[in-house]
């Protein structure tokens, strides 16, 4: 039952992104994802939900093993039933909602300064290079490795942060969300580089996050990804100086 609920949320989130996440506009006889300047309150709310749904589609799959393990433990202990794991997932997504607020504010700032186009893509090579380079550097920091280890070891995480009751389920989910945000926030910066509604770019980052968190050798994968980002960012920065 829990896995079905999670799968439904993930599928609906991807369907919303594919449909344009409320950002589709007519331009030159073509329908494409755009942001509107100057911003209005309704537009800001639309951008927030775009980010929240995007984070749900990208990050909830990698959190599913931890949620299912927590559900199994609750079921074995006859505590919480279906509600507890759903509260875990809600707490997890609540932290990503907080991240989405920050992401929307950064998007507003980048659009206001002209560094982000109405198509929600970076307009400056130097900025793109700096974001790639910064994300690559973070990939090889001790904090990244520590948070990645927590995301890759759901049993150890649950043992360390276990709380009882429904409030406890929410707290555990928020702790897991905090680790995931700390692990992946720099990778999410890449959405500004490739385009926030570039589905191929979003799918690519999602697959990388899944591989990093679920496939053996996660630290090596993070290091290799970091090296690739540093090189790519460095090349773009050099190009911007010419």
How does this structure look, described?
A two-stranded antiparallel ribbon has the order 1-2. Helix 2 (41-76) packs antiparallel against helix 3. By secondary structure, the protein is mainly α. It has helices at residues 2-18, 41-76, 83-112, 125-139, 142-152, 154-161, 165-188, 190-194, 199-214, 218-240; strands at residues 24-27, 30-33. The model has no long low-confidence stretch (mean pLDDT 92). It contains 10 helices and 2 strands, in the order H-E-E-H-H-H-H-H-H-H-H-H. It is globular, with a radius of gyration of 19 Å.
Q: Termini distance? A: 57 Å
Quaternary form: single chain
Q: Enumerate how many helices there are, as a single number.
A: 10
What number is the mean pLDDT? 92
How much helical structure, as a percent, in the residues? Answer: over 70%
Ranges with pLDDT <50 over ≥5 residues? none
By secondary-structure content and strand pairing, the structural class works out as mainly alpha
The fraction of residues in strands falls at: under 5%
Q: In which order are the strands of the major sheet placed?
A: 1-2
Q: What form results from the Cα inertia axes?
A: globular
Radius of gyration: 19 Å
According to DSSP, the number of beta strands is 2
What does the main sheet amount to? 2 strands, antiparallel
SSE order: HEEHHHHHHHHH
């Amino acid at each position: 039952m829990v896995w079905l609920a999670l799968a439904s949320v993930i599928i609906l989130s991807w369907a919303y992104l594919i449909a344009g996440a409320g950002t589709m506009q007519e331009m030159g006889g073509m329908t494409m994802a755009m942001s509107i300047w100057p911003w209005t309150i309704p537009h800001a709310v639309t951008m927030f939900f775009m980010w929240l749904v995007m984070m749900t589609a990208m990050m909830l799959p990698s959190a599913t093993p931890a949620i299912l393990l927590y559900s199994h433990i609750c079921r074995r202990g006859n505590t919480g039933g279906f509600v507890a794991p759903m509260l875990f997932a809600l707490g997890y997504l609540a932290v990503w909602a907080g991240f989405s607020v920050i992401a929307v504010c950064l998007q507003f700032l980048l659009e206001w300064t002209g560094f982000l186009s109405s198509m929600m893509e970076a307009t400056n090579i130097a900025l793109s290079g700096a974001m790639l380079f910064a994300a690559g550097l973070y990939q090889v920091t001790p904090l990244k490795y520590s948070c990645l280890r927590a995301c890759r070891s759901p049993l150890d995480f649950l043992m360390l942060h276990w709380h009882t009751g429904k409030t406890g389920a929410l707290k555990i989910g928020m702790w897991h969300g905090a680790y995931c945000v700390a692990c992946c926030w720099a990778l999410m910066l890449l959405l500004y580089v490739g385009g926030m509604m570039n589905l191929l770019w979003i799918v690519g980052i999602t697959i990388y996050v899944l591989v990093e968190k679920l496939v053996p050798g996660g630290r090596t994968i993070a290091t290799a990804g970091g090296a690739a980002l540093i090189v790519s960012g460095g090349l773009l920065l050099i190009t911007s100086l010419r």
